[in-house]
Design a protein that fits this description.
This protein is mainly alpha-helical and 108 residues long. 63% of the residues lie in helices and 6% in strands. The protein has 6 helices and 2 strands; from the N terminus they run H-H-H-H-H-E-E-H. A two-stranded antiparallel ribbon has the order 1-2. This is DUF7344 domain-containing protein.
Length: 108
Amino acid sequence: MGRHHHEALEPATDANATAETDELFAVLSSANRRFVLAHLSQRATPPALDPLAGALAEWSDDLSHEDARIALHHVHLPKLEDAGLVEYGETVRLTDGDADSLDLVEEF
């Protein structure tokens, strides 16, 4: 038994690709961040932070509008931006991003 059982199940990838995939899964592990991505993908125009916070608060049973705004500004949008999935400033929009990452996002 030269190979470990788990080695046979893992696809052959380089360390950078594995780290990027792990980061993307970590970003997508949050239901709030998945909601943001789905909400943005369904809009014709990018929303400002406040309307996005309102939509998140309405969707979530656990967040007030203010809590959603704070969480978006300090947690969710920075993580999504670091992963290359959104850009935000005056508005929040999906990026053209990495095609493989966007395909994985669509599967969620």
